[in-house]
Every structure is written in structure tokens, then in C-alpha cells.
Amino acid sequence: MTTAHKPLYEKVSDVVNSMIEDGRLSRGSKAPSLRKMSQQLKVSISTVTKAYMNLEDQGILHAKPQSGYFVQKCIKTEPDMPRWPAPAKTPKPIHSEKVLEGIFAAANQENFLSLGAAIPSAELMPSKALARATRQVLTRHPEDIVNYCFSPGLVELRRLIAYRTLEAGCQVSPDDVHITSGGMEAVILALSAVTQPGDIVAIESPTYFGLLQAIEHRGLLAVEIETDPVTGMNLDCLEETIRNENIKAVLTVPNFSNPTGSLMPEANKARLVDLLAQHNIPLMEDDIMGDLYFGENRPPLCKKFDKKGLVLTCSSFSKTTAPGFRVGWVLPGRFKESVLKTASALTQVTASITQLAIAELLRSGYYDRHLNRLRRAYQHQTEQVRMEVAAHFPEGTRISRPKGGFILWVQLPQRINSREMYQQAMEAGISLTPGDLFSVSRKYQNFIRLCAGYPMTEQVSQAIATLGRIAHNMLNK
Amino acid sequence: MTTAHKPLYEKVSDVVNSMIEDGRLSRGSKAPSLRKMSQQLKVSISTVTKAYMNLEDQGILHAKPQSGYFVQKCIKTEPDMPRWPAPAKTPKPIHSEKVLEGIFAAANQENFLSLGAAIPSAELMPSKALARATRQVLTRHPEDIVNYCFSPGLVELRRLIAYRTLEAGCQVSPDDVHITSGGMEAVILALSAVTQPGDIVAIESPTYFGLLQAIEHRGLLAVEIETDPVTGMNLDCLEETIRNENIKAVLTVPNFSNPTGSLMPEANKARLVDLLAQHNIPLMEDDIMGDLYFGENRPPLCKKFDKKGLVLTCSSFSKTTAPGFRVGWVLPGRFKESVLKTASALTQVTASITQLAIAELLRSGYYDRHLNRLRRAYQHQTEQVRMEVAAHFPEGTRISRPKGGFILWVQLPQRINSREMYQQAMEAGISLTPGDLFSVSRKYQNFIRLCAGYPMTEQVSQAIATLGRIAHNMLNK
Lengths: 477, 477
What we know:
The structure is a homodimer.
Chain A: H1 8-21, H2 34-41, H3 45-57, E1 61-64, E2 68-71, E3 92-93, H4 99-108, E4 113-114, H5 127-140, H6 155-165, E5 178-180, H7 183-194, E6 200-205, H8 209-218, E7 221-228, E8 232-233, H9 235-244, E9 247-252, H10 266-279, E10 283-286, E11 311-316, E12 328-331, H11 336-345, H12 352-363, H13 366-392, E13 398-399, E14 407-411, H14 418-427, E15 430-431, E16 433-434, E17 447-451, H15 458-476
Parallel strand pairs in A: 4-15, 6-7, 6-9, 9-10, 10-11
Antiparallel strand pairs in A: 1-2, 3-7, 5-12, 7-8, 11-12, 13-14, 14-17, 16-17
């Protein structure tokens, strides 16, 4: 394509790119203001704006609120993906630690910059639409809010969830949906349905610490399975483990692993379900990030390939709609009755008002538009945090490239201990998650998890720069 | 006192009493209408109303909506209290059954008369005040409803609960309160904090089946302790059990036991806490009915006597405010950190909107007025159900006389199997709870639990008559 056919804004982009290449604009410096550029190139301000936003999407420029556009500190050097050695293959009990509470407590504090907890910013959540939906519930069902809404939960909400599951490749009936008090209760119910204390389960390594806490609460032993940064659980390795150990259940986060962001390819999902069906082993899949894909299509669930009812799918509205509503669900497959029974020993039932309000919201066309916006926002934020980390962290730092969600898995140079980094970060008013929390055997001591749930502001950018300084100092000690 | 000094309405009562005594008014027949009586005795309608309400309180008359007042079918024969033999003293695991799900499913069905589930009628709950409080929350804190409200929960709500606990004889700080998703989660958190799977705990016999489910979920063994229908757990028996078994925790419902309605005397509470302190054994007390006393004063918590932080008190707003809100709490004593840790593996946090709305409601003066009305309503309903059971059930039926709450424990003649009665009742569209669900060893097979959560209507009265017929038929088989 010759420049003659290019849209005007791309010509502006070319000018900026060449200014960076020949050094007129140095890394980290401020780009010319919109007004100045518009005058120099004799194009409209909106054309320059479009060019700058485009360069921002490409990770070349970077907007700072109230300050204008800046050149990213490292542009061409797309950071490497993290890598880690295979975990030991022995089943182990789990003893979690208090460090998590510090991270959550920090998330509750106003002046703390929380990069540690996987919490979406309230401004990304549909607060107004939810408040509106809740008011409608109060008007239409004033008595329903005080009444119990017995397990398996509000029929209308189960119907809407079953309908949405179609997009993930599964046909389930409302009777196959059990509403829970958030995603973690879904996990506990699923796990309790298929295991007894003392049983061995197989998990990805690294994996979400919440799953490890659930395993600990149930009194299980866990074998860590090697996991690829791009494709998730290594199925050859799982197959070998199943031959050697009496595995009672397998736990996976196939769609945008927390912490690695990996996406298990469809073929692997089919193979995994098939493998477990041969051995009659239940599969618990955590799909909490499944709706937050950056690509064209919603990745399918493992459940899509489930012919024997052995797959239990857990999810929630916490990352898409309202963390504070505590509404999740489990698709329990053939373990429906067992899930129902355990539920009555835990929270018994989920709050009525939150179920009614979410059903009201899902019914409105608003919800899909919201999800579309949210996916773009998470993708943008995740890319921005990646770029800031690449710009500020020591050489040798590797960063995951998630295909969905808003979580980054950062591998630091070997000499950096992430617990120590966590302590120093907390003192600086910034939370992060040390990597060893994602492993039974306390691996990943030079890894951290960062969450991109908040829009990139000057404050977030500075916090990442501070983390970078802490890492540099730890290296130079 | 001579009749001359009696208030006018008492003279009307005397007339009615003498009409019953000399047979002019037969048992079960309709009393003269308010208007007719007012004309006959030349007193105002409001005086007759007062007299009739008084006679109703004494269990002599009985109001049927839209039909007027009726003479109770059996007045003088105050039913005997139930009695049961001491349970076996061997620790046993628990295997709960599906029958409970049937009871809860029935409670969800519109045309079912639910005497089985301990659910307050929505009309007794402060639905309008709660809806108002929720609207205020939506207006004042629209963003707070989507945000997580991290454990141990909303500070303001913890402050209000700590303040209310003063009435039960305990001074606790807001930091000593942990908000949960309903009362059952409080129980699970408390139990998980003080036991490991395989441990032995001591429980009252009979006791609330929810506690048995929690014990089963945790994988514990339970020893049943003899329990008095009036004073609750037999402490001599407990002391002996502690000598013989390695008891890791004791579970009690000291204030208005579910199912027996017993109230542990204050001296027994002091002795119980003292006994356990000597052995360093934690005590879990379930106080969910504590605010629903029929007497003058709020009975104290066992926690009142706790010097070592060994008492964990569990409660919720489910019986007083809104079952469907799922807001409970635990006062974890010295086990605060352990409760916090387990919470993060279960529901993580409780919904924000329900915490905010209940805090708003508690702050208003309305709440205490509501509780006063509610106590009177529960007392009245409980007495009415007692009287209906006494009137309709076979001779030899014994009925508890609770001092609070809204639950009745009914002992049927030995030959009646309550599981069979449950089946027949369900076929007739009425639920009840078979007695063996309240025991590890499936005792109490000729007992049922009936709940008086609904105002006495013609429908409830007829349902109890139907249960009576079923019982009679089973005896005559």
C-alpha cells in the first residue's frame, strides 16, 4: 500500500514513528501536544487524536491523564513469556498462609494501590444498571427479598445462565445450574461433591491460590501438573500422574488461567475430558474469566465435550458484573444431588435480592453491550500494565501475554525473592501477589502476579515504576 | 379481689368462662360475636375485644380470620412435656439424608403448607423497612454495592452487632465480630476453626440437624449428650463424656434449642463455660433464636462467662429480619484468625448490599419496635399451634413448652413412626420434620418438629387437624 492510499491519521502515525526512530522523540519523553501536532501537520485535532489513540493501542504511545501522550519506554522489545521447570510429582497437603489476608486487607484501604487482588475497578462495573435493576426488584418483589430463595436458586436466573452457557458450547437446562454465594462456594461445593478428606487431586502448576485453599479446607492432597504458559495443563504429564496415583479429581482453569493467562486449546479440552472419562475421574473447571476473552469468540468449556456428566463447571459474576454481589454458580453434571446436600451444610441458600437483581440485569439487552465494553477495557489495561512492567522492571523480566482476563504472571530475575518484594511493596502502599502462593510446594519464588483490574492512571503507572525500582534495588543489593 | 374492683373486660371474660364451664359454649364451638356479646352485656365492642384477646392469650379462645372467635378444643389439659431416654455415649460419624431437601423444596412450593422448615412468614418480617433501607443504600452508596466488602465484614454492621450483644451480657468490640453469609456459614467457620476431620465433638440430643450436617461436612464424629426438655444439655453427663473421650469441641443451642425449645439456665451456662475452660475445650453456641425470648429479659450468652476466649457464638438475622438476606455472624473469641482464613476458602466475603441494608435498618429506631412485635407474634403463634396439636393429636402426645423461638417438639405415641407420618403428610401437601433427623443415632423416631413461623390461619389449623388424623390412623392400623 502506498502512502497515497493511507488514511490521514496513519500518515500522522508515520510521522510520530519516524520521530521516535531517528531520536527526535526519545523513549519516555512527552509527544507533541495534540494542538501543536495539528498545527505543524495541518490536520485536524481529531485526526491527531485518532493517530495517537492508534499508536497507544500498538503500545507505542501512552496516555497519562491530564498530562498528554508519552512515548513508551520500551517499544520494540515485546517481553518474553515466563518459563518454569516441571513441578515435583508427589501428592502433598496444603498449608496456606496469612499473607493473603494482608493483600485483601490492603484492597480494602483507600490509599493503597491494589495490584495484588484480582478485583475489577468499580468504575468498570455496571453499578448504575445494577442499582436500577435492584430498584425494580424492590418495587416488583418487595416480599421476595426477605424470603429464602431455596437451592438450587432462583429459577429465572438459572434459566438465564443456562442460556448464556450456549455461547460456551454447552446445552444445559436450568435444572443443571446451581446458584452459589460467589465463585469460591461453587468450587467448594464441586470439590466436596467428588472427594473425601484424604483424597488426592491433580492441579495445574501454578494455579489460583483459591483452589489451593479449597483443597486445604477439604483436607485433600494435591499433585501439581506441569503447565504451559500458552496452552495450560500438560496432558501427557497428567496422563502419567493418573497412571501412578489414585487421582480422585482434576482441577483446571482452562480459560485464561489465574495466574498465567493461558488458554487451553479446544483439542486439548476434548482430550482432557476424554482421558478423564476413561478413568471415571471428575473434572472441576473454573471458568470465572471465560467471558473475558480478547479474541473474536468465546472459548468453549471443557463441559462441551462431557458425555458422562463428569465435568463440574464453576463460575461467577464477580469479574464481570459485581464482585460484591456474591453470586456464582456450578453446573454440577451428574453430581447434582451431592452439591445440593453440601450446599445445605454451608450457606444453605444464596441471598434473594442479589439473585433477583442479576436476573433483572441479564434480561436487559444492556448486559451484552456492557460485556463488550468490559472485554476491550480489560484487554487495554492488561496491555498497558504489560508495557509499564516491560519499561520499568529489570532486564530478564518475563511477562505473560494473556488471551483474556486481566491478570499478569511476571517472572523476575532468579535472585529476586517475591516475598521480600511483597514486603517492600506493601510498605510503599502497593500490593502484589507473591508467586509461591500459587503452588503447593512453594515454587515460583521469583514470580509475582499483577492484576490489571484498574484503568491505567498516573498513580498505577507510578506504582509499577516503584515496583520496578524495588526489583532493581533487590538485584543490586 | 372482689368482682367490684375488676376491670370491665375481666367481667366479660368471667361470663365466657362460666358459659364454657356450664356447657353453654361447647369445646370447638364459635363464641358469640363481638357485636352480640356487646349488646347482651351492655359493654362496648372494644371491651369485648379486649376480653376475647385476653382469653386468647390464655389459650381459652382462638381467633380464626374472617370467622370470629372459637372455644379451644381442649383448654384445661395443658399437654405434658416430651421425655426421651438418654442417648448412647459412643462417638459416631454422621450420614445425613435426602429427606431434608424434600422439606425445603416443599417450602418453596406455593400450595404447600410448610410446618417442616423453620421459616418465619414473610408478613412477620420488616419487608417494607428493609426495602426502604435498601433504597437508601442504593442512593447513598451506589458504588459500594458492586465492591467487595472484605472479611470480617462491614465495619458499621460489626459495630451495631457488637452493640446489640451488650443486651446478651457480653462486651465485644467490632473487631470481635465476623460477618458471614447466614447462620450456617457462621457454624461451619466456627467448627472448622476448632476441629480437624476425624475429631470428636459433643452435641445435645436432640439437636438442630444443621449442626449435624456441619459436623458431617467437616468429617467429625459426634457424641450425643443427654438433654433436658427444660434446661438443655445435661452437664453431669457432659462432664463424664469429657473424662472418657477426647472431646475437641462442644456444640450447644443454649437459648431456645431447636428442636426442644429448652433454655439453659444462667447458672448452667456459667458451669458449662467453666468446665470447658478447665479442659481447654472450645464451645460453639448457636444463638440464632436468642433475641426471640418470650420472657421479660434477653437470656445471656454462654460467652458472658468466657474468660479464655474459648466460646464461639454464632447467630444470624434469618429468624428476626430476613431469611433471604443471608447475613449472619460469628463472635470467634480467640479463633479470629482461623475463622478469617477458613472464610476465604468458603464464600470469601458476604454480599455488600445486604450488609449495608441491614446496618441501615439496625441504625433506625424501628428495629427494636419490630423485635418487640415479632416476639409477641411468635409467642402467640407457638401457643396456638401447641393448642391445636393438643386438640387434634392422639392421646399420649406430648408437646414442648418453649420459652422463646417458634419451634415445637412433639412426642407421639410410641407406635407412630414419624418418617411414615412425614410421607403421608407430604402427600397431603403438609411438611413436617421427622424426629430422627435431630439425632446421630436416628433416635426420636416417634417425634416430629413443627414450626410456628406462620400466623394461625384456617389453613394452618386444618393442616394440624389433618396431621392429627394421620396420626390417629397410624395408631389404629
